Predict the 3D structure of the following.
Amino acid sequence: MGTVHAKAPEVTPTEDDIRFERIPARVERVIVEGVGRTKDDIIIKEVRPILESSTFQEMVQNSHEVKRRMERLGLFKQIGIFIDTCKDSGGQTGYEVTFEVREFRPVSGGINTLIGNNDASLTRGYSCNFSKPVNANPDILLSGGIYQFHGSYPWSGYKETDRGVELDLTFPSFLGSHSLRWDGVWRDLRALSRTTSFAVREQAGHSLKSSLKHVFVRDRRDDTILPSRGSLIRLTQEYAGIGGNVEFSKQELEVQFNKSLFWDTVVQLSLAGGVMRPLHSKDEVRINDRFFLGGPLTLRGFNMKGVGPHSDGNALGAEAYWLCAAHIYTPLPFRPGKGGFGDLFRTHFFINGGNLGNVNFNNLHGSLRDVGSEFRWACGGGVVLRLGRVARMELNYVVPMAVQQGDGVNPGLQFGIGLSFL
Amino acid sequence: MAGDTGSLVVDAFQAELGASEPWPDDVVLYQQYQAEQITFPDYANCLSVKTFLYMCGLDFRVEVRTNAEEMSPSGKVPFIHVGAFLVSELDPIIAFVNSRGFQLTAKLADAERSEMRAYMAMIENILVNAELYLITKPRYGCPYPWPLSSILPLRKQSEIQARLASNSWKDKTLSEVCEEVRTCCQALSERLDQQKYFFGDKPTELDALVFGHLFTLLTTSLPEGHFAEIIQQFSNLTAFCKRIDEQYFKQN
């Protein structure tokens, strides 16, 4: 490193050094260009704070704030701000603020092909949605849409075509965020091949599900994929049976807790569980509504949906499950690529356990004891890679410690990629 | 095409495996609900298969399921579940049963056997199409909730229309269809003559197929069904249906 001998130029107040917060400004007019369908009263309500600016700095800040609020409302896909002196005004301090906006199309749609959660499952489909803030409040969002998609589920040996209508209301409360969703869907389930188990084949056919689902999320983590602190609670309740011929009620809970220790080590404890029951005791919940367990991102050490009741190699799913996991995450040894690429990786050591089984509500105590006692668990370690802000990839070495007869076990190296994990 | 070849291989494999095993006790025949749901060409097919199995002296149990059609590997009813195998529709079932050593046509000469095949093809071409022609609004959707109760029959109907269009039956008038049925019955009546069965005094799969279709047409009341009247003009055919009904169904 060479030494630089230099003398700082003397700071003299010049015309360049303008104290913006002292310059008086009066916004004479606000122009919003490019408005077609958006109602005037919403825009007037949003831009009003600009007119109350008294200095130049305040005016610029308010304009940005208004732009941010309008972006959150989801009314416009592009917003540009221009500030100019007002020609009509007599004084020096008159300004006009122009917003150039481009509105969204009223309906959006998409075609997608998705290879899901680290398995051979393939879904493809298309959808058409709209969404709208309620009372011009960007936190309360009403959205709806129609969709069709085809999926195949090789671990269970079936494929399904879904055609449905959905309506969703998302709103906050002092506890967290809520989503209330109605879903009306026609599901056409077929056996995937001639080798599909007869128990799955018996489930083939058409079903119409009309369900109301409430999802409560309280997410206080600093990151969704590799958090270092904070907790998550997600509570899902679904009631199917408002019309249609699918009738059940389903409860699901997921809790996660993260704590940072020394040297960037993070301890994570997670717990998830769910239970469902048909509305009439003689009915059975269909295979496409049941819970499944196992896989490289949930119950590591087991094959995809490899835990629980099976028939001829096809997972049948069950009506209740629980799953818990404890992880210790550390940065990579010797921290290569620190501050950059290396921060996408973590090493982790984990222990996870869970069980999947059917609950007999006439003998609740006995079946809960079964689901609680005959559980599976595994431990191991590996490397986690964060993919963007939504997904992650894991390569682990796993040792299954307790398995039950009929489980699809995957000891040794296991690779997983997906959106949901525990 | 790949799928077809695959299933042919599976069929051949199944036939080969099947030859070494006897007829198990727990054979099940799956079909839809008779009165409420099933369309009558499907009902006729089920009846033919049941008659054929009774004629072979094979035991089976009938299971009624709303989703029998979707469960079937070929998407058609009926299908039978024998051990690890699923076999659907009459012709594959005949081949499967033959491969297990139960044959109705063992004593027939080759010429007679091909004659029998020709008559069976005639029934497939004329009676089955005539039955499909008459379906106007199947009650097919009744086990499902709205809106599936209206969507599914429409879908079924357009499938049937497409099939009729493909073999140019769609544009026929009702009287032309009736004429076809009359010709078919005429040919069958002449072949049967005063014999007990079509080929002497032992039943064949042709007897099962004819009984399935004629009996269904005779006993189902159709809105514009003149078919029953046509069949009743051939007294040996009605007597034949009555005889088989008494012999295989009254006692079972």
